[in-house]
Amino acid sequence: MTEQTERSLSGPGRPTGGRIAEARPLGEVRTWPRSFADRLTAPLPGVRGMTRLARERGMRPDAEGMRGVHRLPYAPEPLPDVPGGALAVTWAGHASWIVRIGGLTVLTDPVWSRRILGTPARITPVGVRWEELPKVDAVLISHNHYDHLDAPTLRRLPRDTPLFVPAGLGRWCRRRRFTCVTELDWWERAELDGVSLDFVPSHHWSKRTLTDTCRSLWGGWMLDDGQGHRVYFAGDTGYGHWFGEIGRRYPGIDLALLPIGAYAPRWWLSDVHTDPEEAVRAYEDLGARAMAPMHWATFLLSSEPVLEPLHRLRSAWQRYGHPRADLWDLPVGGSRVLEH
């Protein structure tokens, strides 16, 4: 974090309007530490844990847990019209969203591939055909795990598409000839055509090869059009103190895109993936107006039954007394439009 950013985010004079740091220049080439392991909020799994996971066969649902696959919510529909000044989100599956805000079309963690490394083929198709996307104005990446950073999908983009990525990931993107890559540290922001894009912390980690553990940062994104719309994309995260801090620094979040899947077994995944009940707690900590779940119903990454995340989420939502209309539990391919 830069000294200037720290000054602007601390102390009694810290603004509460959201645009709380100077925007970094687009495409800026920066020097980063060799490792971000000091940002971890929990130890990484070791050999003993991986051995136990293999022994317990805890990486995929069993036959009983797979029985609901045909009932997973999949209902693709044409992208809705977005009136001037409105916000629209469309869930393409997993952590891939089409966010239309401030006149821009922004993709989050785009994965249009049928299969990713080390994982069975997706269990629901992509919710929006690539050919049906409007012009993509920007791409946000939360971290470098294969289910969030998909090289075959990025290859479909023009190389001048602005990419906004965590600190340390710029070199990977530039090697693939992207010409406008902006790397941010936690609590830093960039701006594109009047839309503020702030990189915020998460409880997670990064790794793409055998030798790059925590060599790049991980986090989520806050999008703000400066006209009253604010969207939080959590990326991939466990539950913890960062949600409350993000809510304090960015009051008035309209919509929180929060992960609810890939959480079992808990002894293995609790530090890095929220379960449905924790996602509702995160929504409360953030002080958001509405929540849309993600990170489920797409790839088999863990052992919970395929329909369980949604059932548990809806139950927790009702139990905690939140208005049903504020839960945007979209099917893959579904959209919602928010107008002020």
Spell out the blueprint of helices and strands.
Blueprint lengths: L2 H7 L37 H10 L30 E7 L2 E6 L2 E5 L29 E3 L10 H4 L8 E4 L3 H6 L5 E4 L3 E5 L2 E6 L19 E5 L5 E4 L8 H8 L5 E5 L6 H4 L6 H11 L3 E5 L13 H12 L15 E4 L2
Parallel strand pairs: 3-4, 4-5, 5-6, 10-11, 11-12
Antiparallel strand pairs: 1-2, 1-13, 2-3, 7-8, 8-9, 9-10
Helix pairs in contact: 5-7, 7-8
Describe the structure concisely.
The chain has 340 residues and is α/β, with parallel strands linked by helices. It has 8 helices and 13 strands.
Description:
With 340 residues, the protein is of the alpha/beta class. The chain has one domain: Ribonuclease Z/Hydroxyacylglutathione hydrolase-like (Metallo-beta-lactamase, Chain A, 4-Layer Sandwich). The protein contains eight helices and 13 strands. A seven-stranded mixed β-sheet has the order 6-5-4-3-2-1-13. Strand 1 and strand 2 form a beta hairpin. Helix 5 packs parallel to helix 7 and helix 7 packs across helix 8. The radius of gyration is 19 Å and the shape is globular. It starts with a helix and ends with a strand. The N terminus is likely disordered.
